[in-house]
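Weekly modeling sync, notes
Attendees: AB, CL, MP (scribe)

Item 1: holo prediction request
CL wants a bound-state model with 2-aminohexanedioic acid before deciding which constructs to order. AB pointed out that an apo prediction alone won't tell us much about the pocket. Agreed to run with the ligand included and paste results into these notes for async review.

Input as submitted:
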Amino acid sequence: MAKTKAAKKQTKSSKNKTEKYQNYIGGEWIKSASGEYFENLNPADTSDVVGRFPKSNAEDVDKAVAAAKNAATKWRRTPAPKRAEILFRLGEILRDNKDEFTRQMTREMGKVLKEAGGDVQEAIDCTYYTAGEGRRLHGFTTPAEMPNKFAMCVRQPVGICGLITPFNFPMAIPSWKLIPALVCGNTVVIKSGEDVPLSTINLVKSCEAAGIPKGVVNVVNGYSEPGEALVNHRDVRLISFTGSTDTGRIIAEVCARQNKIVSLEMGGKNAIIVMDDADLDNAVEGSLWGAFGTSGQRCTASSRLVVHEKVYKKFTEKLVERVKKLKVGNGLDKQTEVGPVINAAAMEKILSYIEIGVNEDKATLACGGNRLTKGDYKKGYFIEPTVFTDVDRNHRVGQEEIFGPVTSVISFSTLDEAIDIVNDSKYGLSSAIYTQDVNQSFYAMQELYTGICYVNSATIGAEVHLPFGGTKGTGNGHREAGTQVLDIFTEWKSLYIDYSGKLQKAQIDEVEI
Ligand code: UN1
């Protein structure tokens, strides 16, 4: 892997001077209570230290929640269109800094520049779109059952929201949570993803520059300790979490005991169905993008390819030929198509799944399967794009979320069988079908039990104005993005106004017997 000048320069300068970052609490950039820091390493080259970030604990969370509490009343009483005006400014600041934020994201997270740019763009889109809700936040009026009585329903903010964000979309996913929380009038404490704190800090610095009042947005950095403290804090009313199903389940249990609102976006085992009438070249390109984009570290990654037996051989041959040509490397290099995976633990987990595929499932390893260790690769967490064929629907590689550049090809003979294979999963985030047949595509759209479904494209590509989330083990029934996200960050208040000037009992008690 040849390193571009830009990548070399980045590495060299970071060795000389490693910047220290702080938590953002009550409008101040402050050290953690412990005074300790952790290093954020570039997963493409671990000798490149992106920065040093405060290792926070429960004391830092206490301070951040207190700041959010202090700011809550004023922010809640700020008219929503005014809150939105500030958010529109935030959108402009993100847009103006897109190139810098993109490069920094690639450096800390590893995804290729184009995708990092897309990630920042998604935060911009989310900000503009959701800020628009400041002039809507619709409620409704409805006739009351009694004369001279008025009935209506409005949204009210929930209070202090704890946002726990993952590594794979370092700016987009925090924005999906932050912007709606703010436009609805809540104050927030964000626990940044420990592998990507810089992108959260870039987002929050932009909030500061946009003029969001002190204490409305707070950030604590660190590992699981501040996350746990946030979930357990009695003044936090809502937790919004994106991450693994195991962690999400624990969060849900704690929140249930404390009657907290909890919104979870967790795992996926997304599948593309390729019918025998599909445009195969298009299906191959879609599968390539769906399976190996972001090195397979998307919740929506196409980790199962369910292919009609009639085209199975042709499809897999074409796919494997293309996969072998994918250029793996440092995301800062413009030619790179597949970057590293996020850290050593993720790499070990993915490699162990490849071993399971070979030794336990006894699937066919059609290509890939190894860590790349030669030359510049040895400083990073690079895994060859990997395809398993002859995978059975019950194989572990066909059932469990791998979250890496690995996909499994499964064959079928009828559309009903294919749908059954796709639905036979504990997850239900995204699905797709490639076919030229309108009847088959509508039937699949009806029968696939996932939160998102695509026709003639891969399982990824969700847009910010449509709801995002999944069925079964993927979530807990909530949806982010779209206007549906407002149901997470507000609670309904029903209002009754009696202008009759006399006692009117509840309508059920006024009936003559
Ligand atoms: C994710 O898969 O983790 O649909 C989020 C997409 C992006 C968001 C994906 N807009 O690919």
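Recorded for review: The chain has two domains: 14-266+475-493, 271-455.
Action items: CL to compare against the apo run; MP to circulate these notes.
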